[in-house]
From TrEMBL:
<feature type="transmembrane region" description="Helical">
    <location>
        <begin position="233"/>
        <end position="250"/>
    </location>
</feature>
<feature type="transmembrane region" description="Helical">
    <location>
        <begin position="81"/>
        <end position="106"/>
    </location>
</feature>
<feature type="transmembrane region" description="Helical">
    <location>
        <begin position="38"/>
        <end position="60"/>
    </location>
</feature>
<feature type="transmembrane region" description="Helical">
    <location>
        <begin position="118"/>
        <end position="140"/>
    </location>
</feature>
<keyword id="KW-0812">Transmembrane</keyword>
<feature type="transmembrane region" description="Helical">
    <location>
        <begin position="262"/>
        <end position="279"/>
    </location>
</feature>
<protein>
    <recommendedName>
        <fullName>Phosphate/sulfate permease</fullName>
    </recommendedName>
</protein>
<feature type="transmembrane region" description="Helical">
    <location>
        <begin position="194"/>
        <end position="213"/>
    </location>
</feature>
<keyword id="KW-1133">Transmembrane helix</keyword>
<feature type="transmembrane region" description="Helical">
    <location>
        <begin position="291"/>
        <end position="312"/>
    </location>
</feature>
<keyword id="KW-0472">Membrane</keyword>
<feature type="transmembrane region" description="Helical">
    <location>
        <begin position="161"/>
        <end position="179"/>
    </location>
</feature>
């Protein structure tokens, strides 16, 4: 029975984590490639996922989480109440609310000390993302995000270059996100997987991704679509590069899991402030409203995840 609960937990966590977090890494990719077949986009993302997973499994002796679960041991007995976290995340995702899947899933299995470390790392990640994106876009917004510059790109037929650049940046970003968030997906399974467990779980995740890609990201994709120019390939590429570099540099400083959602919302916030300040000041108030709304949503997720963690401790 415990094994059944573990496998069910893995499948629910895999769907809810990928569905909720798809906007971070593949949201701009789906948005700017909306005319392309979803099968092509899925095959591309699935290949990157398979390579990243197998590399981590081989390098870390069967641990696909890249040692993110090293300090989060698998409970000796997994009871039904451990499913409360991924089920709650599943419900929240259906309402299109972006939350930290790291806090929602891992806090149930973690000690209070580790939860505090995750929160501190995530808060600093959000602040760093806002400041970095703000400074970068204050420099490049007029050159790359103005209507005239976007029209100029079309006239100069630079789309092919930027399309290639976007697919490369997406591959880099997707792999870095997976390194951070494989822990959220695999927390229900043994820390060292056998070859059959690896391949079986890979097939499950690829099937989940096919469903999400077929639905173009679902309701939660609206978070990206509301932001300025995200359907433009060049704009999407610049967002992906900023986010990927931040995850690569800051996210890999140590093996403490962090909220990639907070970092992504921070990138969008800093970018939106800079673009509206420089190019469309009349919409600056609306931009602040969207930023506060997004930040409130991720904090709701944090509060819910901590509440669930304490509830499970009581049930124990």
């Amino acid at each position: 029975m415990e094994q059944v609960i573990a496998y069910v937990g893995f499948m629910i966590a895999a769907y809810s984590v990928i569905a909720n977090d798809v906007i971070q890494t593949l949201g701009t990719f789906l948005s700017s490639n909306h005319k392309k077949s979803w099968q092509i986009l899925w095959a591309f993302a699935g290949t990157i996922l398979a390579v990243t997973m197998i590399y981590g499994w081989y390098t870390f002796d069967g641990d696909v989480s890249y040692a993110r679960l090293a300090n989060i041991p698998l409970p000796e007995k997994i009871q039904w109440w451990y499913l409360l976290a991924p089920l709650t995340l599943l419900i929240i995702t259906r309402f299109g609310i972006p939350v930290s899947t790291t806090f929602m899933i891992l806090s149930v299995f973690s000690t209070q000390t580790l939860i505090e470390k995750m929160i501190v790392k995530s808060v600093f990640g959000y602040a760093l993302a806002v400041i970095s994106a703000l400074l970068i876009y204050l420099v490049i917004a007029k050159r790359f995000e103005s209507n005239s510059s976007l029209e100029e790109m079309d006239k100069k037929k630079q789309k092919k270059f930027w399309m290639g650049a976007q697919w490369c940046s997406t591959a880099f970003l997707w792999s870095q996100w997976l390194i951070q968030d494989f822990a959220n997906i695999y927390v229900f399974l043994p820390r060292q997987l056998g070859i059959y467990e690896l391949l079986g779980s890979l097939l499950v995740i690829l099937a989940i991704m096919a469903y999400i890609f077929k639905n173009r990201g679902g309701k939660i994709q609206e978070i990206v679509n509301q932001k300025a120019n995200t359907q433009n390939i060049r704009s999407a590429t610049l967002i992906d590069i900023c986010y990927a570099l931040l995850l690569y540099i800051y996210g890999n400083m140590n093996s403490v899991p962090m909220s990639t959602t907070w970092t992504f919302i921070g990138i969008l916030a800093g970018r939106e402030i800079a673009i509206n300040y420089l190019l469309q000041k009349d919409k600056l108030k609306k931009a602040y409203h969207l930023i506060v709304k997004d930040f409130a949503k991720v904090n709701i997720g944090l509060a819910i995840s901590i509440a669930i963690a304490y509830l499970i401790q009581l049930l124990k």
